[in-house]
Structures are given as structure tokens and as C-alpha cells.
Amino acid sequence: MKVGVLALQGDVREHVSALAACGISPIEVKRPEELSEVDALVLPGGESTTISQLCEIFGLFEPIKARISGGMPTYGSCAGMILLADEILDAKEGQKTFGGLDITVRRNAFGRQVDSFETDIDFADGSDELIRAVFIRAPWVEKTGSEIQVLAAVDAHPVAVRSQTLLATSFHPELTGDHRIHRYFIEQVAKPALEKVK
Amino acid sequence: MSEVKGTGRVKRGMAEMLKGGVIMDVVNAEQAKIAEDAGAVAVMALERVPADIRAQGGVARMSDPDMIEKIQAAVSIPVMAKARIGHFVEAQVLQSLGVDYIDESEVLTPADYENHIDKWDFTVPFVCGATNLGEALRRINEGAAMIRSKGEAGTGDVSNAMQHMRKIGGEIRRLSSMREDELYVAAKELQAPFELVKEVAQAGKLPVVLFTAGGIATPADAALMMSMGADGVFIGSGIFKSGNPAQRAAACVKATTFWNDPKVVADASRGLGDAMVGINVADLPVPHRLADRGW
């Protein structure tokens, strides 16, 4: 499986090393040609407004959107969650997302940087062990469609959700050195989705 | 589930999210919107850009809270603000306003010529300037969660930024090539804590994100700094002191992302109108050089 990390802006390096720790050699995606080489994609943390604008300028926006709606397994953390949401609240005027996940996400819902925090969360991958989760100016999920599975929540706000092919977290597992979420994406989301296509 | 705010990981992680981006100086809400529309990853709210501070002289201080709040209300991207070196009360004020990052900055007139702010004391993260590795590690030891090379602010002359990036990079490469038993003396020479020196020697990079600042005025300047190993770029006077700020801002964002693609940098450089006029650092009398503030 060839996995790409969208590399226009944000904590690309951290996602690349988290994927490498899961035995994947990811490539950085900055151009449409690179996108067409990958089977699955990771949308990093960063500024969602900047990333979506750069996608539009460099001709990646529509291709990524088409791949996602065509079933390409995709994982987004923080800004990546915003980019995967069908609907966003507190957005910059005219801000666009790839969509694909039937959720409504509120940007910076947990507050400004002074409210950023870390905590242990229960992630529904079958393990009893808690995951240390880092939330940075993080969004939360305000509404979920009927096909959406909530995998983790903080104070009753969903912070990790998935559909058949898409996974999104409000927090940044790429910052902690614990690769469970990346492994979950590869093993439980991407592999089954790609098997099905075959 | 206990939530912990202001941890090292939360502070340093915030800077990781800014990587590959451009942070722009803005003096009002209108400029902040232009910066956000151009794709800035954050804005630095201040009353006068460095070029004006330089031209007008006098003591430069923290900005008016009203002005910072207007900028916070105008944009959804992070808002940073500057406090004077050592002025921990200005920093407390900025934290209470909920700014996303504080720049303890040599661009403002220092409040303390011996001590910097004890940045561990704060929930809000700090970025500090550095001209060499020892200075960067001293700031990190005081709690800085992000470093920017200083350059010479308000000049539009990129030579000092270049010099500082080369210096920091060169000193890191030197540490990486040393035997472990040589790092004690290296730490003494750098005037930096041994533990941090060892960490840098092993990792081959700073333990925090390294941006660059001071004198960047064109897309090619931004790309140059990225190719010197910067994680991202601060542009101060370079944008809003130029002929066409919106277009120049967007061009600098493109060149920062595609710094290693000269064709993109070339396209971004076309038809931008006048760059800021600029001052050669060599023509600046030594007492007027901001990079020498901080130690």
C-alpha cells in the first residue's frame, strides 16, 4: 500500500515518521502527479485555511476531493479533520473543505492556544489502554450523520470519528510517539477499504 | 480524565502546526484579513512594523490590547503578539488577552538588559530570537517553545537572517560530529546547558521548531531561508511596506511551500510591484542594530 502525506503545510514530518514506525514508507504529496501514485492519504495538522488555499492554487483541491469521494482511505488530524468534514462552523468566510465525512465540525472549539491541553482518552479500537491525546486549538465534532462511528469523545464531544474509508481525530497522535491511531488507520481503515476495491 | 494545559508538548506542538508557513506582521484588522486571505498560518499583531519603529525611533512597547482584540476578532488563524525582552508583565497581559503565541522580541525596546522572561511560568507559548545556537538553547532553557533566527528586522536586507541561519545550522552540524565526551566543553563554549547540547548533538536539530525572521522581503528570500533549513518564515515589514501587499503575501506563501522548485518561485516573483525600499544592514550604525539586543 502506498500512503501519501499532504505536504503543503503543517506537521508533515511527524506524520511521516509515525507512518514509518508502522512499517509504511510514505511519500509527500505536493502535486497532482504525486497524489495519483498513492492508495491512501494523510492530511496533517496545520492551518486548515492555508492548506485548502494552497490546494486550490496548486491544482490539488478537486483531485483530492474526487479521490476521497471515490473511496480513497484518508486520515486527517486536527486541520485534517476540518478538511474532511462536510460542514464546518466558525470557518473563515468562503473556507472550503474536501468533505466526505458526514459530520459538522466546529473550528477551534476547545478555545485558543491558552486552552490547548493534553489528556488520556479511551479510543474504541478494542484496547483497554488509554491514549495520551494532544489537543492544539482543536476542533470538535458537533453533529454526526447516521453512518458515522464515534471512536472517542472528550466531555461528550466526539474527537475521533470514522466512516467506511475515512478517519478523523481532533487531536495529534503524531506528536506523542504512540502510533496506535496510525496503525488503526492502516490496519482497520485503509487495508479493509482497499481489499474491498480489489 | 484530567486535562493539563500549557505542557511542553502542547506549546511546542503548536509551533509544529505552523511549519511550512508564513507568519505576517499586521498593524490592524484589515491587514490581518489580507494576510489570512493570502494564506498566512498566523499573524503577529503589533502597532508599528519594524521598519516604522526604526524610522520613528523612541521606545517601542507592547501593543494596545484593543488593537490586539480587534485583530483576534477579525481572523480565525492564530494571533501572536510581542512583549519586550524581560517584561513579564507585558507577557502576563498578552496571556490574559488569549494571544496564541508571545514573541519576546528584540524589535521592541528591552525592559531588562540582563534577564529574559521566565517562560516556564506561562501557559501561553513563547517564541524568541537567536543569532547563534548558544543563544537559542539559552532561550529554550528559559522555556521558549519556538525559536526564530533574528536577522535584522525592518531592513528588507536578508543578509543577517542568512548569517544567523548558517551560524545555527553550522553549530548544530559541528555538535553532531563530536564525541560525547567533547560535548561538556562544547556546552561551556556555547554557554548553554549540557543536557540541551547533548539533545541537539543526538537529534541533529533543535528540540523546537526553528523559523527565520528579519529582512525577508521577496518570495525568493523566503525560499532561500527554507532551503537553509528554516521550518517557516516570519515576514515583518516586507509585506505591508511593499507596493502590493495582498499579492506579495500570497506570493511569499507559495514560495515558502515550493521553496525547492525554482519555477514556482519564479512565477510567484512575477509582477509584484515595488518591494519595500530597504536599508543595507552595513549602513546601520551598530547601536541601531536590533539583532544585538538579547544575549
Automatic annotation (TrEMBL), chain A:
<dbReference type="GO" id="GO:0005829">
    <property type="term" value="C:cytosol"/>
</dbReference>
<dbReference type="InterPro" id="IPR021196">
    <property type="entry name" value="PdxT/SNO_CS"/>
</dbReference>
<dbReference type="GO" id="GO:0004359">
    <property type="term" value="F:glutaminase activity"/>
</dbReference>
<comment type="similarity">
    <text>Belongs to the glutaminase PdxT/SNO family.</text>
</comment>
<dbReference type="GO" id="GO:1903600">
    <property type="term" value="C:glutaminase complex"/>
</dbReference>
<protein>
    <recommendedName>
        <fullName>glutaminase</fullName>
        <ecNumber>3.5.1.2</ecNumber>
    </recommendedName>
</protein>
<keyword id="KW-0315">Glutamine amidotransferase</keyword>
<keyword id="KW-0456">Lyase</keyword>
<keyword id="KW-0663">Pyridoxal phosphate</keyword>
<keyword id="KW-0378">Hydrolase</keyword>
<dbReference type="GO" id="GO:0016829">
    <property type="term" value="F:lyase activity"/>
</dbReference>
<dbReference type="GO" id="GO:0042823">
    <property type="term" value="P:pyridoxal phosphate biosynthetic process"/>
</dbReference>
<dbReference type="InterPro" id="IPR029062">
    <property type="entry name" value="Class_I_gatase-like"/>
</dbReference>
<dbReference type="InterPro" id="IPR002161">
    <property type="entry name" value="PdxT/SNO"/>
</dbReference>
<dbReference type="GO" id="GO:0008614">
    <property type="term" value="P:pyridoxine metabolic process"/>
</dbReference>
<dbReference type="Pfam" id="PF01174">
    <property type="entry name" value="SNO"/>
</dbReference>
From TrEMBL, chain B:
<dbReference type="InterPro" id="IPR011060">
    <property type="entry name" value="RibuloseP-bd_barrel"/>
</dbReference>
<comment type="pathway">
    <text>Cofactor biosynthesis; pyridoxal 5'-phosphate biosynthesis.</text>
</comment>
<dbReference type="GO" id="GO:0042823">
    <property type="term" value="P:pyridoxal phosphate biosynthetic process"/>
</dbReference>
<protein>
    <recommendedName>
        <fullName>pyridoxal 5'-phosphate synthase (glutamine hydrolyzing)</fullName>
        <ecNumber>4.3.3.6</ecNumber>
    </recommendedName>
</protein>
<keyword id="KW-0663">Pyridoxal phosphate</keyword>
<comment type="similarity">
    <text>Belongs to the PdxS/SNZ family.</text>
</comment>
<dbReference type="InterPro" id="IPR001852">
    <property type="entry name" value="PdxS/SNZ"/>
</dbReference>
<dbReference type="InterPro" id="IPR033755">
    <property type="entry name" value="PdxS/SNZ_N"/>
</dbReference>
<dbReference type="InterPro" id="IPR013785">
    <property type="entry name" value="Aldolase_TIM"/>
</dbReference>
<feature type="domain" description="PdxS/SNZ N-terminal">
    <location>
        <begin position="9"/>
        <end position="213"/>
    </location>
</feature>
<keyword id="KW-0456">Lyase</keyword>
<dbReference type="GO" id="GO:0006520">
    <property type="term" value="P:amino acid metabolic process"/>
</dbReference>
<keyword id="KW-0704">Schiff base</keyword>
<dbReference type="GO" id="GO:0036381">
    <property type="term" value="F:pyridoxal 5'-phosphate synthase (glutamine hydrolysing) activity"/>
</dbReference>
<dbReference type="Pfam" id="PF01680">
    <property type="entry name" value="SOR_SNZ"/>
</dbReference>
<dbReference type="GO" id="GO:0008615">
    <property type="term" value="P:pyridoxine biosynthetic process"/>
</dbReference>
